[in-house]
From TrEMBL:
Sequence positions that bind a divalent metal cation: 25-26, 126
GO function terms (MF aspect): RNA-DNA hybrid ribonuclease activity
Source domain of life: Bacteria
NCBIfam families: PRK00015.1-3 (NF000595)
Residues that span the membrane, as ranges: none
Principal location class: cytoplasm
RNase H type-2 domain segment(s): 19-219
Family stated for the protein in its record: Belongs to the RNase HII family.
Name of the featured protein: Ribonuclease
Subcellular locations according to the entry: Cytoplasm
PANTHER family, sorted: RIBONUCLEASE H2 SUBUNIT A, RIBONUCLEASE HII
Amino acid sequence: MAVVAPTLSLERRLLREHPLVIACDEVGRGALAGPVAVGAVAADAAFSRRRVPEGLRDSKLIVETRRAGMAERVRAWVPAHAVGWASAAEVDEVGIIRALGLAAARAIEELRVQGVDIGDALVVLDGNHDYITPVAPVGRGVLPIIKADRDCASASAASVIAKVARDEHMSELDAEAPVYGWARNKGYASAEHRAAIEEHGLSGHHRASWSIAAAPTLF
């Protein structure tokens, strides 16, 4: 089955009614270790008329060897971008949904610091649940859209930017604790990662509140 490329059609429609759209997507939600990250991309009317970079997709649909190059291209393509983070300790303290909200709020705040007028923005959020508003109501509200990261080019861009940033972070953490193989598994429940946890126990970067021993192998 051919993969359909994302477009800016939804963004153009929303921008008829809102001065600004901010697209958000998360990475790391299902990992056993490391932070969750939320990418945020600002989209205005001028941006909505730009040509979508060739090969842009939801980050999961881009082979790993090409993601960094695509992230570099989309960072140059979008008007503004940011990545917000919530640590494993915060996931343990407040739960994964609240942690996603914290990460998203931090990404949107970073856009504000860059000069983006977030008060006039409608936030498009990949998924079916608004985890942002309970943490930090923003602008003109949040619009959850299932498969936004597949269909909406700004959300695809946010996905790629966040994925590459988090993968790089996990590779840096791998140098601190190489026994877990985070440079390869990025903190997810690979067989290698599970075996290392069984042998060495949990690190300070693991989500200790999770039932890690029972976690399924994701890849």
